[in-house]
Design brief:
single chain, 3 helices, alpha+beta, 168 residues, 3-stranded antiparallel beta sheet
Length: 168
């Protein structure tokens, strides 16, 4: 199974997990990391197109960004947060490819498929992940998100927002 097969979200979303035996477990271990504090900047990873992202890809993006940023800022120098959750069940109709498979397999007849993975449908311009940092770690946060966006499909952009502006 390739991620390119599920990049576009076609049809209605299937999210009713209570009816499925053997549903896939979510691979994302944490949705927040670092130390929650008041930071000056918010660096966001946003998507430029309507896309469907698998939970394995989301987790590898999160891990890469956090590990890269921990090397420079430490565990208490930033706060990261995932902004999406993979609700959608992705199904696959696996075909048998052995000798005599034409007598056993039903082909496309009754092709409902088994739930193999989870995915999140993301709209154009939606934020996937954000990292809160102070001015001394701003370049490192941008570098961490740039390094981690390779793990995702599509073409993401990185936005920097000044978060806590000092009042005059």
């Amino acid at each position: 199974m390739h991620g390119a097969n599920y990049r576009e979200g076609n049809g209605q979303v299937f999210t009713r997990k209570e009816f499925i035996k053997g549903k896939p477990q979510i691979k994302i271990t944490k949705f927040q990391g670092g130390k929650r504090d008041t930071y000056k900047y918010c660096v966001q990873l946003c998507v430029n197109e309507n896309i469907q992202i698998r939970h394995v890809s989301i987790e590898s993006t999160r891990l890469t960004a956090n590990k890269t940023l921990e090397k420079t800022a430490g565990e208490t120098g930033y706060y990261s947060r995932l902004r999406i959750y993979p609700h959608n069940l992705l199904r696959e109709n696996k075909q048998i490819a052995t000798a005599g498979a034409d007598r056993i397999s039903e082909g496309m007849r009754r092709a409902w498929g088994k739930a193999t993975s989870l995915g999140a449908r993301v709209k154009q311009g939606q934020c996937i992940m954000e990292i809160y940092v102070n001015a001394e770690h701003l370049v490192a946060a941008k570098k961490a998100l740039k390094k981690s966006c390779v793990k995702m499909s599509g073409t993401p952009t990185i936005k920097v927002i000044e978060w806590n502006k000092p009042s005059p």
